[in-house]
Write a structure and sequence with these properties.
single chain; about 300 residues; alpha/beta; TIM Barrel; eight-stranded mixed beta sheet; two-stranded antiparallel ribbon; 11 helices; disordered N terminus
Length: about 300
């Protein structure tokens, strides 16, 4: 059971002890932010207000967010800035792929995660820019593994293929939530369409590890989470990630429940029983959190 506290007349869950994380690595955070800004780069760690940012920046890990820092969609869980395509900030930076590669090389990364905002204003959804970033990173760091976390490209599977042809080692596309909550959480996305993206990715590139994740605590039931895991697995996805949703700003959806570590463990066990190569499930899990270790364990244990 979640502990409730009344705030402005409404009962809301109180942050439990297992979700209190210290912020102790300010020098590493500042240094990496400075280098990123010098190259006009963004990370989803910053834009989405990830609770793991101090830990990840301290160990030299970051998830690069390309196609700018303004999203064309209005997902109610997300704090990434939204804007109109008419704004000058929506202009693609042609140097962004090279800058991502330079930054990844400077950090001497052995595992690079690249994600993006949604760019529904672009004919190809930004997929060529995405693919070029992958190619540049692979040239700069030929020994590194590259994971992409892509949008749905409005269901354009040719855009998905374009990204896959650039040669990422891992293809990730998040479902984000259960089917019933899509209209509320992802009003411009479609549950079945996202499943089609995952299924197509594995069919198009069978040797690419596929991955998907969701946030919990938005009002879903255990039965709905289990159905989501079954649907993801039926789309031939190799790895599932489940983490606790935390309200990033007052403008975003409130937390309905703080899921206990025991329940996360139960979801992990259920997912593994379905046949996933790995299920990374816990309160602080995010789709790209510890992505290098998740990839290593998934490939090692099922080699």
């Amino acid at each position: 059971m979640s502990t409730l506290v009344t705030i402005e007349g409404a009962a809301r869950p109180r942050l439990p002890v297992w979700l209190r994380k210290s912020e102790t690595h300010f020098p590493a955070l500042h240094a990496l932010k400075t280098d990123l800004r010098a190259r006009r780069l963004h990370t989803v760690c910053e834009s989405a207000r990830c609770p793991n940012i101090h830990e990840c920046f301290h160990r030299g890990a970051a998830t690069f967010m390309i196609l700018g820092n303004l999203c064309t969609r209005g997902c109610t869980f997300c704090s990434v800035p939204k804007g109109s395509p008419a704004k000058r900030e929506f202009t693609l930076d042609p140097d962004e792929p090279a800058h991502v590669a330079e930054m990844a090389a400077q950090m001497n990364l052995r595992y690079v995660v690249i994600t993006s905002v949604n760019r529904d204003d672009l004919a190809d959804g930004g997929s060529e820019h995405f693919a070029e970033t992958v190619r540049q990173v692979r040239r700069a760091l030929p020994e590194a593994r590259v994971e992409v976390l892509t949008p749905d490209f409005c269901g354009d599977l040719s855009a998905v293929a374009r990204v896959l042809e650039a040669g990422p080692h891992v293809f990730n596309h998040n479902m984000e939530t259960v089917k019933r909550l899509y209209r509320r959480v992802r009003p411009q996305a479609h549950y079945v369409e996202s499943l089609q993206v995952l299924r197509f990715a594995k069919e198009y590139s069978p040797n690419t590890l596929t991955k998907s994740g969701a946030m919990l605590g938005l009002g879903e039931t255990p039965q709905e989470v289990e159905l989501l895991l079954r649907d993801i697995h039926a789309a031939h996805t190799d790895v599932a990630t489940l983490g606790q949703y935390l309200q990033p700003t007052r403008r975003n959806l409130p937390v309905a429940e703080y899921v206990t570590p025991a329940q996360f463990n139960a979801y992990r066990d259920y997912g593994l029983s379905l046949g996933f190569k790995m299920v990374f499930s816990g309160p602080f899990v995010r789709s790209s959190y510890m992505a290098d270790e998740v990839n290593h364990r998934a490939t090692r244990e099922h080699a």
